[in-house]
Amino acid sequence: MTETKKETPVPQELKGTIKDRFISLTENLQFAWFSGHAVVLLCSFIYLFSFNKIIYRIAYLGVLHSFGIIVYQQYYQNVKTAVSANNNGGASPNSSTSFPKLSVNALINDENVLYFVLAAMWLITPVFSLSLVPYSLFSLFHVLKYLQNILLPVVFGISKENNKRVSTVAKFTHTYNEKCMYWVGSSEIIIVVLLFVRALLWYPSSCIILLTFILFLKLRYENSKYTKSAFSQCRVRLDGMISHPSIPAPVKGAYNTAKAKLIELSRYQLTKPMETEKKAI
């Protein structure tokens, strides 16, 4: 879960009114990023009880907004700043200043780009409620971190050092942030299974959506330890279930064949390690 590159510094002494401090904060690009995640979180909560299609679409507009800002920073703003520094003599052309190289391999290795493209697909395709789960988990932790690290200290002077509730939130995000990534990986496995069932039932656009998501999941498997771990845990659980004596031999044979094929497929790499690409430059 990548956050914006620049964080608003927390001042030692609060200056001005609460209104002035809040307005100053809203002028920062990071606040726009936070707003996108807040929209996702709020709309996901409302959608949970209403299943309103408009709310669902608004949630994905929030996803595109927040992830779009990250992609903009990585592939436009940072590059523009570096180029400007070179042109103004701030850095030599041979300096060690680095920024993302715009290439196909760089893009498909970038989780923010992948989640942005996937969100665009969910926005324009028929509603699939479970697809909001990974984005809602991302937004929950991003919103909580922004509140505890930026908004509350900068605007209200409240921090984990002087407020027990903020301290509790800080402990929660610290304890469950990494676990959240495993939850995301597990939810994405459930999603691909349900998409496969929908394809068998000939839901509208189901085959295109399934193939797109399988490609996304393959790219995530190659680059995310959390996705790999989710698949490993799933395989262990299925192995335990299939090994039960009550399971018919044909079912066990079909499972083992399918597992072997998936393991073989996992060995084919769609991406190249970014380190290799850097050494070649």
Automatic annotation (TrEMBL):
Pfam families (alphabetical): TMEM33_Pom33 (PF03661)
TM regions (residue ranges): 31-48, 113-133, 203-221
InterPro entries in the cross-refs: PER33/POM33_regulator, TMEM33/Pom33
Subcellular location(s) of the protein: Membrane
GO CC terms of this entry: endoplasmic reticulum; membrane
Biological process per Gene Ontology, one example term: endoplasmic reticulum tubular network organization
Entry annotated with the keyword Cell membrane: no
Source taxon at top rank: Eukaryota
Keywords: Membrane, Transmembrane, Transmembrane helix
Membrane topology: Multi-pass membrane protein
UniProt record similarity statement: Belongs to the PER33/POM33 family.
Name of the protein this chain belongs to: Similar to Saccharomyces cerevisiae YLL023C POM33 Transmembrane nucleoporin involved in nuclear pore complex (NPC) distribution, assembly or stabilization
Source organism of this protein record: Maudiozyma barnettii
